[in-house]
Amino acid sequence: MTKKETYEKKTEDYLLPLMEEYHFELVDVEYVKEAGNWYLRAYIDKEGGITVDDCEVVSRRLGEWLDEKDFIEDSYILEVSSPGLGRPLKKDKDFDRSIGEDVDIKLYKPMNKQKDYTGTLKAYDKNTVTVTVEDGTELVFNRPEIALIRLAFDF
Questions:
Q1: Same domain, residue pair 77 and 119
Q2: Which of 38, 45, 55, 71 is the most exposed place for a label (fewest CB within 10 A)?
Q3: Is the whole model's pTM more than 0.85, yes or no?
């Protein structure tokens, strides 16, 4: 297990019972380096959406626990937020939550001379993602060929 995976797993293990206590859902935990800074991010959600106050409560509890356990050797920035629009679908629970929603898909290489698709997420399994596009056609994409899949922005 890499340092990154260890930090994410330990944080997730701490957060899961906390999520039950508050009736929140833990969407994801990630430990990433961006622009020279390390970030430990926890994405949380709940029915009807997460509020700033919800994030603050979880951030305070998580921050105190992290200070006490002190297992992350780098200096990092802790962020607790809602998954937000435009966040990539990565895990099965992301796909489960998004069935029936519109998604944007970007492919590594063109399919039918096109790399970008928008459609309604119909189904997925470990190998494929199925969407229905505007004209009602069902398209099946191989997951390894998908560079990015995320909820579509509706404006």
A1: no
A2: 71
A3: no
